[in-house]
Amino acid sequence: MTRSRIPSASPVDLPPFVNEPIFPGPDDPRVRQAFPLAIAQVRKQLGRTYPLYIDGRDITTAATLDSVNPADPDQVVGKVCQAGTREAEMALDAAERALLTWRDVDPSQRALYLVKAAGIARNRIFQYSAWQVLEEGKQWAQAYNDVAEGIDFLEYYAREMIRLGAPQDMGSYADESNFCFYQPKGVAVVIAPWNFPFAIGCGMCAAAIVTGNPVVFKPSSQSSVVGHHLVEVFREVGLPDGVFNYVPGPGSQIGDLLVDSPKVAVIAFTGSMSVGLRIIERAGRTPENQASVKKVICEMGGKNAIILDEEFDEEAAIRDVLYSAFGYQGQKCSACSRLIVVDKVYDRFVPKLVAAARKLRIGSAEDPGNYMGPVIDAKAQRTIMQYIDLAATEGTVLYRSEVPAKGYYVPLTIVEGITPQKRLGQEEVFGPVLSIMRAKDFDEALRWANSTRFALTGAVFSRNEDHLDTAVRQFRVGNLYLNRANVGALVRVQPFGGFKMSGAGTKAGGPDYLLHFMDPRCVTEP
Ligand code: NAP
């Protein structure tokens, strides 16, 4: 028996993967010209209605949700049709039908759809970034890098599928030859957060699609207009009907239905710990009519720490701590939420950090001169304000910035006197609140860094090689950074994701990721 028993299309020869260049800076001539133009063009399209997309058709619903600009909530960015039970079921049925043919399409051919999709997103990178500035309050750089990451996922997973799509010769035993290959699991439900509104949804959908699993995509209610960019991209590349379905709708109403459905084989989720754990629990139930054990690919929150040791580059540390804690208003799963400073340098360093924070400008993300913008919505604003109030009782507030009166702004806040026993030492805030902890030495700093339920990202600033070595072994997080910011993972070179309550150990943008969407099969023949 030979590998040729698996029908294979003509081999596809793609150039090696390279990361999409990240944001070149607001002063780059192309950016100066293209970004304001893109924002102006997007402004002309505000308020449009976005239909669902099921089985290759636009579906409008009577119910719509206004997605608003967090810097100016009176401004409706788009009206998004809302899937209810009926539409969610329609999407699952469409995906189930599409599976019958999509699963047997040659992996290389599936990969080519992704490469085409990447080309479309690349051509629209300014346009898609501008939508994020207005719908999510993302700074120019943050928005641009999000689209670039989405492009990376498309390009990388395409190449990964070509690699994994080739049957593997397992060798022979007792005159029998053997080979293994992968098949898709089945219908995939993809549930995405709003904070990387293109990249994360795109990455999870691309992985499911390229591995042969038709997708029912539920974007976050806060980022459904940007979520619709995936409809544009996947429709334009000509994916067969039913392979990609877009069903925005309240997670509280259609989430359980999608997760519980016996038609579903795999769920890719990125979001909060509470919703992630709920999904894992519900997906574990197996009604009589369910064909397969559901797989949950789950990425959740973080309570990430940066450790400052006795000696380090202070200028770099100030820049990187501020960026990690307050970039995109601290609304990143990877954001620095705890700064653990060893006693010996504490009194010298912390005042410098606070002085630098005082200089950061806060205002609309449309103005690239603003370092920090609004948080995503009124609910997030309320929750973060509760943590800022808590900061005053659990510690000493060193800085609480002024903010614009209109829009969902919260003060950039730095609090000291936090220990692992306090809520601010344990709970994910998901906003611009930096808790500073004074540790007596590096060992205590490391113990404290590991003292939460989460294990997503972390960083250590140190010139002590032994301490850096120790951190590599004992700072137990999914992504550890030495002498640099703890945010901004890049596809392929820095596979991203955590463990403990930060996730189930899957690494988006890494070489193992696609395997979670497939089942291996083995064939033996004398
Ligand atoms: P979230 O509230 O958990 O929502 C995530 C998604 O789940 C949304 O699409 C939401 O829909 C949906 N959902 C809500 N309830 C559901 C239910 N009962 N069943 C199924 N789906 C349901 O999280 P978020 O506020 O969007 O995002 C922030 C969180 O994501 C933070 O905790 C952050 O750390 C985490 N995150 C983690 C990573 C990572 O890679 N580890 C990356 C980014 C973000 P609705 O919007 O309609 O409610």
CATH class of the largest domain: Alpha Beta
Number of helices: 15
**Ligands bound here?**
NADP nicotinamide-adenine-dinucleotide phosphate
Structural class: alpha/beta
**Nearest-angstrom radius of gyration?**
23 Å
CATH topology of the largest domain: Aldehyde Dehydrogenase, Chain A, domain 1
Strand content: 15-25%
**Structurally, how many domains make up the residues?**
2
Q: Average pLDDT value?
A: 97
Number of strands: 22
Strand order of the largest sheet: 15-16-17-14-13-19-20
Low-confidence parts: none
For the biggest sheet, the summary is:
7 strands, mixed
What is the level-2 CATH architecture name of the largest domain? 3-Layer(aba) Sandwich
- Which word captures the global form? globular
The named CATH superfamily of the largest domain: Aldehyde Dehydrogenase, Chain A, domain 1
Residue share in helix: 25-40%
* Alpha-carbon distance between the two ends: 8 Å
